[in-house]
């Protein structure tokens, strides 16, 4: 679904709409750069597979799809919680790459503990996509910023799925709800 969405956007072409965000050097707390200086498809993007929704959002999720749509190659670091699923999805992407006559190597998957830091610090990596914990995302942001040539990190960190409990449900099933949450 993520890949189809980005393919549809690319075919429509409305992403090419003219919009100029000029620099705001006086903006606080941080200045805004002149976004016209950002180049599309400048290099590989490191994507860290999310722990949730492994089939929908991890390997072939929005981070991967948007990087590919922007003309960047992708190196996905499989999430350790579902490496077999990540591999299954990666194989599907690789078949699609081959079937579409896209150059080999535009999509890559790596596995294992301790590979994230060297991936982010590799001089060819030009951006990072991450969905996960605040601690993990902060570590990636710090590594990316400390590089000789800093790179952007696009991160969704520490999202919480809200749970709403209406007064009538609490009144009639409050103890059961509390017990289910505790379990």
Q: In summary, what is this structure?
A:
This protein has 183 residues and is α/β, with parallel strands linked by helices. The chain has 7 helices and 5 strands. Strand 4 (127-132), helix 6 (134-146) and strand 5 form a beta-alpha-beta unit.
Number of strands: 5
Largest sheet: 5 strands, parallel
Output the number of helix runs. 7
Question: Numbering strands along the chain, what is their spatial order in the largest sheet?
Answer: 3-2-1-4-5
Beta strand %: 5-15%
> What gap, in angstroms, lies between the N and C termini?
33 Å
Structure characterization notes:
Helices cover 42% and strands 13% of the residues. The protein is of the alpha/beta class and 183 residues long. It has a 5-stranded parallel beta sheet, sandwiched between helices. The two termini are 33 Å apart.
